[in-house]
Amino acid sequence: MKKIRLKTRFTSDTRLARSDGFSLVEVLVTAVVMSVGLLGIAGLQLTSLKNNDSAFIRSQGTIFSYNLIDYMRANRQSAIAGDYNISLSALSDLSAPSGTPTIADSDRYSWFQQLDANLPNAKAAINCDANAVCVVKVEWNDSHAEGSTSTKDVVLTAQL
Question: What average pLDDT does the structure give for the chain?
Answer without folding.
Answer: 83
